[in-house]
């Protein structure tokens, strides 16, 4: 079949940030296939220079409002690494909790408000208010609960306030922990309903084998905040070697940087984590995974949405046991941090470099700072999950388009949009907008 | 009393989109809001698009390049009411920190020799480019304030961002003052309206809501020296959100 | 049951008293917030209470005139329908110092004066006050001796004085007596107990010294002569107009009235919220004229509202000497110093 | 928490229905309002009410009509901000909330039997019209009456039809001045210049003349100086002061001028009694 297709999705919607899909098929031959990022660059790494390391998490959380907690946590981790501070067990638990809340929030947002309209054949959740009112209410209720839990723990979800170098400025009281536990347990029925909802959805069948990258560990915990960097192709490196994993490189025919590891591209995110650490999922989550037909190594990128649901269950259950742990341990309020104490030089500052690697909802997020002996940032580098996925998305599109050439333009467009959305790309936070290609230059 | 629902669209410029997310985070209250307005475009969560006249345009983000300026002006032209939404839009916000650097230099730092593909200009707040009818400041926006502004818009009455210090709300909330902890807090010079969000969480105020109209700058400096807080540290902190203050409106 | 005006409560029964009382009523008492800061909060056991405390961040006025309180509810969906309301709460305040009791007495006068404020009065009716004696000074900011509020002088239902192993409790009202009766842990005060109380008071009279060399009675005249004093200009340079000094003052009662409508745009409420004369927009009118443009003028106004104007209107000072404004001011504007500076600048003028 | 309905609360409003609205100038409209059930407001000239729009707020507005009118009252309102602009958008038949009347009005009893020099600047005419109408209604109770009115330009003249009548009346003297001429000047306006330039032109017997002045804050200083130079005793000068007001009950503190509350102790003051108040002017 030879036909011309010209798809230009100007302003891809229901993703965080601005991206355009450009596909050009001439006489059945794929000429152009790319995802342009048109988000206005914000130069965060540039403007971090000269700022105190104690402001870094506050500033970098503003890279992205959707995964602000993950950015804060990656930033804090990098800063603590540079300052050689080891967080307490309590702090680690609370941070894990915060990340769980955000992952839940972000995944649920994606499943319900961003991905499900495609699967239900509407443009957005707005028409669903009439047709699927209970579903929309459930989605908003779940989201609100995640948000409220973040508020208790970190002041708010968007740009958390309490999480800081050394720990938390405000530790949850006994009543707060009870309230969180209550909310978590209260989410269970809605999550069950979500599982039911998702299992009625049919994800497009499309497969492309690729390399998956995520944090990995040797212990029994599903690694989200700690661990080494690992891949399904058998790579394993310490987090300080993150540059060897991300391998930002220049493509000869384009001025843009791509990332790759063992092959032409790699993917991060829920599916990657699941493919690498499936066994460490909470049993409940594993059950859901097998019910959804998800098992490693799953190479259908559309299934990322299902993987998010599985992780949601994991996060919920793990959060519940973490809160129970914290309640049993009892919170040590002496650990409360007075922020700004650096103004009084209470945390010893030294020159150094530190890396933070955190599993953000969308994949591995790296922050890396170099500071001088006054704690002033000299260099900063942040590598965002979406940046790492862009290359892989384009490769997927290249394989997908020829397979669906028999479909109408509208359908092709939808398939492509859905593909991009399945990665839940967070373009707004792409500090390195390295993926713009200028094919027709 | 049923009146036609105003057509509302959200637009984002240079920002983290967290303020839009704040709206989605309101839970079922969102449905109450959607009951009184007709959201016709909201790219973050909707595919619908709208290129006709608008009753209310809600602008998130700062203006950092020529394209953005043009796009914003077009939106202004077809919108009856324009709301600057969030600190990036209302006062320039964190993007203003870029103005500490030469645009070419910072471009080179981040993108290397390809920096010219990403032309950038001095960051400006929305009101520094077009007329703004309402401002919801804050990083992120404080949803109760947003709802208040929205109601003011629907009623056709003005909303004034409070012109007094965050300290007022901080005291109403009976927080221990950061100065008691010998920490420099920007509350005394920052506009209230956030219900002293950060200090309620035992952090300091970072000044994200903009500076009051008549700050006592000399007095504030004296206070810092009273508490032995390095002045440059705090001045820098003011820049974190308020750098665009330096740009004079044409 | 108890015929004498005084009873005692042994320290070992204190916890039982608090727990018992908290089961009967909402009970509010000073608790520590760290950094030598305290606040009145709901308690249910004795160990939560900071018996030795310096004035709380906010004075107990927050219970009589809450930071934000509804005045009127309305519904304009069909006809205009309004209802003036108050949402009072029964409660007992435990551990109120004499300066704060004086503050409540000031507010009582303001809100009972014509036109009466029924929101305040209705709340007032439902609150019982248990005072607690200060055996010594809180800190250097207090001027309670000068303002003559360091000894109990009515305005409470019960009054506790810590005398080591026990509290001696003065029963001042029928409501107070009911509390004593309901919680069966009090014993009759013996003569020796009363003697000990008298001894403490004697000692207090020697410890508490007028904090400034001026007679209370001459303060109004001092202010009459100080309207144009340079002292206010000095405050102008230092004050940040943050409003803290007025928010924390037990006798400041200025408020703003705001309307809040619900999203249905037809039901809502009108409420009042604490306001402060120190804030830039306080006296600004439409058209932009500001009748209190300068921080100097606003600071002067604050001091005159404590030491001069109410003396005419209510025949009492509206400073209770609690020292909160001085503690809350990050600019270090101290009431004692301001008064001292006024006295000094005046004596300089007289001598010149 | 208990919820108690307060029948006696001073924050209760009376329902008022707008009977008619008349555009007077670009920014000012005259509202005629009747209380529910025909209740009389029972005000004195110079008093004010708090006008409420629910969801918007309250604003203090002087009564413009003579108390003698009874069944309804009139408010002349300038669109200046939130509440007043919203009021301007209303149409006849709309309901508003009314609290009051509040404050001390003009000392009508003390004025009786004396000559009057009434000086109104701009919106100051709104409260003074109430007094003037009262005087017309009881003309025999007063001696000579001089009315001076000044405003920015002919386009800002309030109650223009009535002013034309006043100009024709023989039982009073009336002069009008404008600061500047921006459009056709009606022939009955004889002067261009500040209000103070009119004062030397009136013939008065100072000891039996009471001056009543209402205008924006800036004019008082100059007008009073002029009046004193005409030998009118301080205690025979009355003026009405504007302040930020929230409660109208002498509590909220916004309108305080040193020791006094403008809303309860004023807004009409005797100059002799408040001249020592530095914050008053
Ligand atoms: C005794 C008395 C009698 C009066 N009689 C009359 C009368 O007869 N007719 C008449 O028209 N008027 C009269 N006024 C004036 C009238 O009360 C005011 O014009 C009215 O209160 C304005 O209310 P508003 O809600 O419309 O304005 P507002 O919206 O309240 O605007 C003014 C207020 O908003 C604040 N404000 C304005 N802009 C800003 C901003 N950008 N940021 C922050 N704050 C801002 C100002 O500080 C001011 O307090 C009288 C006033 C008094 C005291
Ligand atoms: S903590 Fe900050 S905002 Fe609060 S009173 Fe102190 S200075 Fe003001
Ligand atoms: S306290 Fe300060 S930094 Fe925090 S939200 Fe309020 S204005 Fe912004
Ligand atoms: S607390 Fe101090 S700085 Fe703040 S308004 Fe009062 S005097 Fe001024």
Write the layout of secondary structure elements.
The complex is a heterotetramer of chains A (441), B (250), C (352) and D (281).
Chain A: E1 5-9, E2 19-26, E3 29-37, H1 44-48, H2 53-60, H3 68-83, H4 89-119, H5 125-131, H6 133-154, E4 163-164, E5 167-168, H7 174-199, E6 211-216, E7 228-231, E8 236-237, H8 242-246, E9 249-250, E10 257-258, E11 266-267, H9 270-277, H10 283-291, H11 304-329, E12 352-360, E13 363-371, E14 377-383, H12 385-403, H13 409-422
Parallel strand pairs in A: 6-11
Antiparallel strand pairs in A: 1-2, 2-3, 4-5, 6-7, 7-8, 9-10, 12-13, 13-14
Helix pairs in contact in A: 2-3, 3-4, 4-6, 4-11, 5-6, 6-7, 7-11, 10-11, 12-13
Chain B: E1 7-12, H1 18-24, H2 29-36, E2 38-42, E3 54-60, H3 66-77, E4 79-85, H4 87-91, H5 103-111, E5 134-136, H6 143-155, H7 166-172, H8 197-200, H9 217-226, H10 231-242
Parallel strand pairs in B: 1-2, 1-3, 3-4, 4-5
Chain D: E1 4-5, E2 14-23, E3 28-35, E4 48-53, E5 57-62, E6 73-78, H1 82-88, E7 95-102, H2 108-111, E8 115-121, H3 125-137, E9 145-151, H4 160-168, E10 173-178, E11 191-192, E12 209-214, H5 217-229, E13 237-240, E14 256-257, E15 260-261, H6 262-265, E16 268-270, H7 271-274
Parallel strand pairs in D: 8-9, 8-12, 9-10, 10-11, 12-13
Antiparallel strand pairs in D: 2-3, 2-7, 3-6, 4-5, 4-7, 13-16, 14-15
The complex binds flavin-adenine dinucleotide and iron/sulfur cluster (3 copies).
Question: What do these coordinates show?
Answer:
The complex is a heterotetramer of chains A (441), B (250), C (352) and D (281). Chain A is of the alpha+beta class and 441 residues long. Chain A has a single domain (1-441), classed as Orthogonal Bundle (Cytochrome-c3 Hydrogenase, chain B), CATH 1.10.645. Chain A has 13 helices and 14 strands. In chain A, helix 4 runs antiparallel to helix 11. Chain A is globular. Chain A starts with a strand and ends in a 19-residue tail after the last helix. The relative contact order of chain A is 0.20. The model of chain A is unreliable at 251-256 and 430-441 (pLDDT under 50). A five-stranded parallel β-sheet of chain B has the order 2-1-3-4-5, sandwiched between helices. By secondary structure, chain B is an alpha/beta fold. Chain B folds into two domains: 7-155, 3-Layer(aba) Sandwich (Rossmann fold); 166-245, no CATH class. Helices cover 35% and strands 11% of the residues of chain B. In chain B, helix 3 (66-77) links the parallel strand 3 (54-60) and strand 4. Chain B contains ten helices and five strands. With 352 residues, chain C is of the alpha+beta class. In chain C, helix 8 (231-238) packs across helix 10 (295-307). The longest helix of chain C has 17 residues, at 191-207. Chain C is globular and about 65 Å long. Chain D has two domains: 8-102, Translation factors (Elongation Factor Tu (Ef-tu), domain 3), CATH 2.40.30.10; 108-280, Nucleotide-binding domain of ferredoxin-NADP reductase (FNR) module (Rossmann fold), CATH 3.40.50.80. Chain D is 19% helix and 30% strand. The termini of chain D are far apart. Classes of the chains: A alpha+beta (441), B alpha/beta (250), C alpha+beta (352), D alpha/beta (281). Chains in contact: A-B, B-C, B-D, C-D. Chains C and D meet through strand 4, strand 5, helix 4, strand 11 and strand 12 of C and strand 1 and strand 14 of D. Strand 5 (81-86) of chain C pairs antiparallel with strand 1 of chain D, so a sheet runs across the interface. The structure holds flavin-adenine dinucleotide and iron/sulfur cluster (3 copies). Chain C: It comes from Candidatus Methanoperedens nitratireducens. Chain C: Its EC number is 1.12.2.1. Chain C: It is an enzyme of class 1 (oxidoreductase). Chain C: This is 4Fe-4S dicluster domain. Chain C: It holds the Pfam family Fer4_22. Chain B: One of its GO terms (molecular function) is oxidoreductase activity.
């Amino acid at each position: 079949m030879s036909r011309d297709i010209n798809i230009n999705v100007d302003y891809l919607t229901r993703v965080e940030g601005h991206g355009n899909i450009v596909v050009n098929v001439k006489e059945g031959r794929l000429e152009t296939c790319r995802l342009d990022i048109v988000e206005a660059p914000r130069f965060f790494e540039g403007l971090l220079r000269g700022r105190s390391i104690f402001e870094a998490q506050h500033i970098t959380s503003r890279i992205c409002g959707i995964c602000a907690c993950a950015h804060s946590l990656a930033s804090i981790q990098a800063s603590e690494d540079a300052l050689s501070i080891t967080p307490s067990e309590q702090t680690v638990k609370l941070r894990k909790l915060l990340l769980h809340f955000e992952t839940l929030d972000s995944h649920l947002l994606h499943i319900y408000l961003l991905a499900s309209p495609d699967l239900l054949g509407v443009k957005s959740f707005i028409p669903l208010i009439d047709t699927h009112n209970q579903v929309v209410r459930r989605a908003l209720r779940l989201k609100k609960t995640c948000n409220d839990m973040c508020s208790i723990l970190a002041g708010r979800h968007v740009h958390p306030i309490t999480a800081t170098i050394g720990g938390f400025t405000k530790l949850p009281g006994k009543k707060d922990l009870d309230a969180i536990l209550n909310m978590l347990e209260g989410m269970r029925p809605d999550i069950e309903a979500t599982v039911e909802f998702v299992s009625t959805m049919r994800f497009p069948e499309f497969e492309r084998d690729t390399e998956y990258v995520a944090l990995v560990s040797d212990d029994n915990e599903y690694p989200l905040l700690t661990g080494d960097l690992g891949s399904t192709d058998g790579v394993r490196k310490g987090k300080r070697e993150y540059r060897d994993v991300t391998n930002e490189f220049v493509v000869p025919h384009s001025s843009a940087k791509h990332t790759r590891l063992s092959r032409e591209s790699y993917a991060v995110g829920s599916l990657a984590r699941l493919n690498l650490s499936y066994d460490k999922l909470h049993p409940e989550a594993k059950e859901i995974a097998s019910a959804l037909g998800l098992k490693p190594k799953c190479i259908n990128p559309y299934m990322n949405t299902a993987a998010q649901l599985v992780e949601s269950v994991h996060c919920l259950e793990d959060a519940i046991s973490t809160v129970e742990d914290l309640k049993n341990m009892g919170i040590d309020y002496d650990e409360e941090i007075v922020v700004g104490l650096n103004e009084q030089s209470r945390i010893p500052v030294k020159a150094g470099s530190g890396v933070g690697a955190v599993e953000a909802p969308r994949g591995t997020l790296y922050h890396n700072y170099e500071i001088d002996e006054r704690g002033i940032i000299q260099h900063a580098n942040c590598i965002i999950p979406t940046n790492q996925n862009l290359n892989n998305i384009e490769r997927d599109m290249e394989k997908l388009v020829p397979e669906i050439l028999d479909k109408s333009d509208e359908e092709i467009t939808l398939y492509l949009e859905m593909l991009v959305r399945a990665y839940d790309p967070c373009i707004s936070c792409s500090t390195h907008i390295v993926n713009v290609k200028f094919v027709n230059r | 009393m049923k009146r036609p629902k105003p057509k509302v669209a959200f637009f984002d410029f240079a920002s983290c989109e967290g303020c839009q997310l704040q709206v989605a985070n309101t839970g079922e209250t969102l449905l109450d809001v959607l009951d009184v307005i007709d959201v016709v475009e909201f790219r973050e969560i909707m595919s619908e698009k709208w290129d006709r006249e608008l009753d209310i345009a809600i602008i998130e983000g700062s203006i950092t390049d020529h394209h953005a300026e043009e796009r914003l002006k077009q939106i202004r032209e077809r919108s009856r009411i324009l709301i600057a939404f969030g600190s990036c839009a209302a006062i320039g916000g964190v993007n203003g920190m870029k103005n500490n650097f030469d645009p070419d230099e910072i471009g080179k730092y981040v993108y290397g020799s390809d920096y010219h593909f990403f032309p950038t200009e001095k960051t400006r707040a929305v009101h520094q480019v077009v007329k703004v009818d309402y401002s919801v400041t804050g990083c992120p926006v404080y949803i109760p304030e947003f709802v208040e502004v929205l109601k003011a818009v629907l009623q056709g009455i003005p909303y004034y961002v409070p012109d007094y210090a965050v300290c007022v709300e901080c005291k109403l909330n009976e927080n221990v003052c950061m100065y008691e902890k010998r920490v420099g807090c920007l509350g005394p010079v920052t506009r209230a309206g956030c219900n002293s969000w950060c200090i309620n969480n035992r952090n300091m105020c970072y000044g994200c809501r903009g500076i009051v109209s008549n700050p006592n700058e000399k007095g504030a400096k004296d206070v810092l020296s009273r508490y032995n807080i390095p002045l440059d540290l705090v001045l820098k902190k003011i820049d974190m959100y308020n750098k665009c203050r330096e740009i004079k409106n044409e | 049951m108890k015929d004498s005006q005084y009873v005692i409560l042994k320290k070992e029964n204190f916890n039982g008293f608090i727990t018992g009382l908290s089961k009967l009523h909402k009970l509010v008492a000073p608790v520590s917030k760290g950094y030598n800061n305290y606040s009145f909060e709901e308690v249910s056991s004795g160990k939560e209470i900071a018996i030795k405390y310096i004035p709380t961040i906010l004075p107990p006025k927050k219970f009589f005139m809450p930071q934000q309180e509804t005045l009127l509810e309305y519904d304009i969906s069909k006809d205009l329908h309004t209802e003036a309301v108050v949402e009072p709460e029964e409660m007992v305040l435990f551990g109120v110092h004499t300066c704060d009791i004086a503050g409540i007495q000031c507010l009582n006068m303001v809100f009972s004066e014509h036109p009466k404020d029924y929101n305040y009065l209705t709340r007032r009716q439902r609150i019982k006050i248990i005072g607690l004696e200060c055996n010594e000074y809180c800190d250097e900011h207090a001027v309670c001796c000068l303002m003559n509020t360091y000894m109990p002088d009515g305005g409470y239902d019960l009054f506790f004085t810590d005398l080591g192993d026990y509290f001696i409790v003065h029963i001042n009202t029928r409501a107070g007596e009911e509390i004593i009766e309901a919680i069966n842990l009090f014993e009759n005060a013996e003569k020796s107990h009363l003697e000990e109380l008298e001894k403490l008071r004697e000692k207090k009279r020697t410890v508490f010294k007028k904090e400034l060399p001026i007679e209370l009675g001459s303060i109004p005249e001092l202010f009459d002569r100080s309207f144009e004093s340079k002292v206010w200009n000095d405050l102008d340079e230092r004050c940040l107009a943050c409003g803290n000094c007025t928010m924390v003052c037990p006798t400041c009662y200025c408020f703003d009235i705001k309307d809040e409508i619900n999203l249905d745009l037809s039901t809502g409420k009108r409420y009042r919220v604490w306001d402060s004369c120190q804030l830039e927009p306080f006296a600004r009118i439409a058209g932009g004229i500001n009748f209190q443009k300068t921080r100097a003028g606003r600071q002067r106004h604050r001091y005159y509202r404590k030491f001069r104007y109410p003396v005419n209107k209510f025949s009492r000072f509206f400073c209770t000497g609690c020292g909160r404004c001085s503690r809350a001011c990050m600019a270090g504007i101290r009431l004692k110093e301001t008064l001292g500076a006024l006295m000094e600048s005046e004596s300089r003028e007289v001598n010149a | 928490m208990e919820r108690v309905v307060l029948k006696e609360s001073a924050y209760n409003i009376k329902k008022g229905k707008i009977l008619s609205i008349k555009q007077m100038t670009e920014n000012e409209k005259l509202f005629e309002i009747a209380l529910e059930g025909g209740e009389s407001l029972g005000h004195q000239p110079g008093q004010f009410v708090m006008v409420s729009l629910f969801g918007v707020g309250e604003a203090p507005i002087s009564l413009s009509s003579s108390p003698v009118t009874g069944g309804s009252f009139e408010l002349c309102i300038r669109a200046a901000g939130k509440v007043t602009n919203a009021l301007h958008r209303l149409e006849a038949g709309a309901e508003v909330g009314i609290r009051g009347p509040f404050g001390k009005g003009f000392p009508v009893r003390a004025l009786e039997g004396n000559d009057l020099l009434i000086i109104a600047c701009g919106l100051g005419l709104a409260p003074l019209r109430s007094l003037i109408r009262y005087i017309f209604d009881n003309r025999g109770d007063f001696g000579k009456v001089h009315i001076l009115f000044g405003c920015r330009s002919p386009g800002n003249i309030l109650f223009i039809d009535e002013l034309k009548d006043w100009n024709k009346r023989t039982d009073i003297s009336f002069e009008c001045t404008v600061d500047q001429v921006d459009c056709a000047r009606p022939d009955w306006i004889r002067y261009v210049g500040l209000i103070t330039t009119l004062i030397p032109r009136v013939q008065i017997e100072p000891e039996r003349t009471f001056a009543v002045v209402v205008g924006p804050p800036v004019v008082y200083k100059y007008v009073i100086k002029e009046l004193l130079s005409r030998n009118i005793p301080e205690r025979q000068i009355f003026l009405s002061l504007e302040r930020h007001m929230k409660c109208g009950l002498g509590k909220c503190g916004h309108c305080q001028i040193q020791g006094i509350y403008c809303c309860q102790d004023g807004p009409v003051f005797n100059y002799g009694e408040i001249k020592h108040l530095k914050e008053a002017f």
